[in-house]
């Protein structure tokens, strides 16, 4: 077994001190990130259109909406969460919004009364 040198003891102490100081700083960020990963469920009428949003059931294909489904008049509006936490939809792709509810409202605004057509899956 190698002897414990002064250099090894100081290195180990520095690593432990650095790790102990970093953990409390990371905990609030991890807790905040978990809160933002689950958008609220909603069901409302917006400008005469029924919009709904809820956690998506697990299916065989990949969802970009982080497991969240949005519907306009019962037709699924494909949504995607961006890396910065904003949301976009297939209808208003270049206008990021803060929530899936806002994405549904933006889609209704963009559709201007036209029906949302089903988006073919791959």
Key descriptive features of the protein:
protein ne1242 fold; 21% strand; 122 residues; 4-stranded antiparallel β-sheet; rod-shaped; alpha+beta; 6 strands; two-stranded antiparallel sheet
Structure report:
The protein is of the alpha+beta class and 122 residues long. The protein is 35% helix and 21% strand. It folds into 2 domains: 36 residues; 70 residues, 2-Layer Sandwich (protein ne1242 fold), CATH 3.30.1880. The protein contains 2 helices and 6 strands; from the N terminus they run H-E-E-E-E-E-E-H. It has a 4-stranded antiparallel sheet, with helices on one face. The longest helix has 31 residues. About 10% of the residues have low confidence. Pfam families: MelC1 (PF06236). Keywords: Copper, Signal.
The rounded Rg comes to: 23 Å
DSSP strand count:
6
Share of helical residues = 25-40%
Query: DSSP helix count?
Result: 2
Strand content: 15-25%
**What is the CATH architecture annotation of the largest domain?**
2-Layer Sandwich
Low-confidence stretches: 25-36
Global mean pLDDT: 79
* Mass-distribution shape: rod-shaped
CATH level 1 class label of the largest domain: Alpha Beta
Oligomer: single chain
- CATH fourth-tier homologous superfamily of the largest domain: protein ne1242 domain like
H-E string? HEEEEEEH
| Intertermini distance | 60 Å
InterPro entries: GriE/MELC1_sf, MelC1, TAT_signal
Protein name: Tyrosinase
Family: Belongs to the melC1 family.
Keywords: Copper, Signal
């Amino acid at each position: 077994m190698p002897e414990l040198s002064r250099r090894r003891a100081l290195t180990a102490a520095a690593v432990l001190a650095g790790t102990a100081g970093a953990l409390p700083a990371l905990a609030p960020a991890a807790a905040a990130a978990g809160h933002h990963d689950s958008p609220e469920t909603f069901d409302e009428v917006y400008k005469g259109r029924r919009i709904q949003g809820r956690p998506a059931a697990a299916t065989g294909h990949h969802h970009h909406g982080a497991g969240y489904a949005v519907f306009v008049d019962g037709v699924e509006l494909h949504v995607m969460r961006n890396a910065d936490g904003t949301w976009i939809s297939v209808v208003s792709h270049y206008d990021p919004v803060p929530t899936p509810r806002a994405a549904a409202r933006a889609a209704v605004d963009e559709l201007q009364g036209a029906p949302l057509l089903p988006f073919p899956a791959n």
